[in-house]
Design goal:
Elements: H1 5-36, H2 40-43, H3 58-64, H4 67-98, H5 106-118, H6 123-132, H7 150-162, H8 165-173, H9 178-189, H10 191-207, H11 210-214, H12 224-232, H13 237-241, H14 261-297
Helix pairs in contact: 1-14, 3-14, 4-7, 4-10, 10-14, 12-14
Length: 298
């Protein structure tokens, strides 16, 4: 089919816009990567934009060779894995239970869940609640408060409602109990949606720095993103070296002759961002499929 001149111009403009958008997203990442791979004192002179002028791995050696950040990584990995599994389990069970239209007080429960999406008590009441539950300054403050997501539950509920009722009714007529229906019908058919929600939940846990900064005072429990936030707030390398804080312990014992605070910051950003960027492409097809299925069935 031949395109008119106007269609060709429109397509060219759209392509140009998408290319510019892609460049605007990629350039900051490439810039930080170049700084992290460049000698810090040389990068401080300026002129490093897309590739390192004096290549070095010393910045990454300082970051990865430090026990503090390795421990923060362990906290982040544990939080992401446990938090994602718990979140998916709670979301699936809640959505499956509320999918039964004959469930007592179903509408009332759905209303209460909807209210939590629209209103909240604020940060101070939330902190007081966590304190009264003895969750502050514990690892479980990362897991339990975020175990249930009203938005994810409604998305999952819509997906379950899109599953033909004849499948569930025929299974129940054959004597299948609700757990059997869940594991034999709902879960196998919900894998794309579970993958999409799992990706959302996992990225949220990996990127969250807020809980570690405000609900945890034990520096041995902070995740890598909170560590990064503390590092980015440091002013110079002498501050990084001069305190007992985890941030200031980052470069202790290393040769800092060619290292600057900016180069260490950029290396830490890369180390914290690359793992989730490597995982995302492998889950993208499930993410897109899950979102499309959810939107069509919704």
């Amino acid at each position: 089919m031949r395109q008119s001149a106007g269609e060709k111009i429109g397509q060219a403009l759209i392509t140009l816009f998408l290319v510019l958008l892609c460049v605007s997203v990629l350039y900051p990442f490439l810039y930080m990567l170049a700084i992290s791979l460049n000698v810090g004192t040389d990068a401080a002179k300026g002129g490093v934009y897309l590739w390192p002028r004096k290549f070095t791995l010393s910045n990454f050696q300082i970051v990865l060779g430090n026990a503090v950040i390795r421990h923060a990584y362990l906290i982040t990995i544990m939080r992401t894995i446990i938090g994602t599994v718990v979140g998916l389990l709670v979301t699936l069970l809640a959505a499956f239970a509320l999918s039964y239209r004959r469930m007592p007080a179903r509408r009332t429960l759905l209303t209460f869940v909807l209210i939590t999406m629209l209103f909240n008590g604020g940060l101070i009441p939330f902190y007081i609640q966590l304190y009264n539950l003895a969750l502050t300054n514990t690892f479980w403050v990362y897991i339990l408060p975020s175990a249930f997501s009203a938005w994810n539950m409604f998305v999952m509920l819509k997906f379950i409602h899109g599953i033909p009722e004849a499948l569930i009714e025929s299974a129940e007529m054959d004597g299948a109990t609700p757990p059997r229906v869940l594991f034999s019908i709902i879960i196998p058919l919900s894998k794309p949606m579970l993958a999409a929600l799992g990706l959302f939940t996992g990225v949220m846990h990996w990127n969250d720095w807020f809980a570690g900064a405000f609900f945890v005072s034990d520096q041995n429990l902070i995740p890598v993103q909170t560590f990064l936030q503390q590092l980015l707030s440091a002013q110079d390398i002498s501050v990084v070296m001069g305190s007992n804080n985890n941030v200031e312990a980052l470069a202790r014992g290393s040769n800092l002759s060619d290292v600057t605070l900016m180069s260490v910051k950029m290396a830490t950003v890369m180390v914290s961002a690359i793992p989730i960027l490597c995982v995302y492409p492998f889950l993208q097809k499930y993410f897109v499929k899950g979102v499309l299925i959810g939107s069509v069935k919704g």
